[in-house]
Amino acid sequence: MAKRPDKITDFKNDVYFKYLLADDQDPQCVYMLKLLIEGITHIKCDSVKVLNPNINPQNVKDKDMILDVRVKTDIGENFDIEMQNGKFSTANYNRFQSYGANNIVIQTQAGDKNYSRIRQTFQLIFINDIDKDNLRLIDTYKSRNEEGKVEKNNLITRSYIQIPMIDVIVREKGIENLTPLELAIYIFKNGIDNDIMKVKEQEVVKIMKEKMDKFNEDEELRLAAYNRQLNIMAHEQEKEEARQEGRMDKIIDFIQTRYGVVEEHWLRSLNEKQLESINNIIFKEETYEIFKQKVEAV
């Protein structure tokens, strides 16, 4: 078993991410909340209130660790902000959209049927990946018509912050010229490295480094962060195993349909290259025994 690290250094870790932002009574947390929310949504925050601030080590097995924030502007408007880390996948794209819709639905289920009072929801989803069809640091979506005009009273705005894109921006403009928001995203991506120390006097750098230092002083938080990472790895492994099992079931059905027989234990003993050869060989050989021989010879 891998040795548990003495320190957490991944600024993208879900437990640290929530620790960095969850305490709306802490000036440093408020600074980071306003920096991210204002920089991404362009909402001018007069006040911010975190609706689920508790960091429960028992919640490390949750599928998602979402931070819910209520923002009030200087003209009295209220907005709901949902912040989380995530990954690109078909299931996750659907899940993110479902969460956004649910944030609207629950406002009416609470008993208030005055639809004019529904608060607009902004989803800020930090992705450690890049959508190659949308090469931008912040990729934002709203409901629009065919002419590209945003729907009146649009209720859901979803922004994907593609964290790896920050390295492209650094190459273009240099780390000394990054905005505070870009510096924060750089630290999420690369941590406190030698390059970021060139601008160590920037407020956002000081806060994120100090927060991580304090985080690592708390053994319970460190353990929760470590267990969170293990849980994510286990979940990914389970999904991969399920994909492989589904693939194997399809191959078994394929061979059974073609030859009327299949030896499952033999099939599961094959390596990846042999499994990939089945689609080519199965249409060329009329008998099951010759098919087996050809696959085994690969």
Report the span from N to C terminus. Answer: 35 Å
- The portion of residues assigned to helices is 40-55%
Number of helices: 10
Number of strands: 6
Alpha carbon gyration radius? 25 Å
Q: Structural class per helix/strand content? A: alpha/beta
Task: State the major sheet.
Answer: 6 strands, mixed
The figure for the number of domains is 2
* Net shape: globular
Q: What is the strand and helix layout of this fold?
A:
Elements: H1 14-21, H2 27-41, E1 45-50, E2 67-73, E3 78-86, H3 90-109, E4 120-127, E5 138-141, E6 156-162, H4 165-173, H5 180-190, H6 203-217, H7 219-259, H8 264-268, H9 272-281, H10 288-297
Parallel strand pairs: 3-4, 4-6
Antiparallel strand pairs: 1-2, 2-3, 5-6
Features:
298 residues, globular, 6-stranded mixed beta sheet
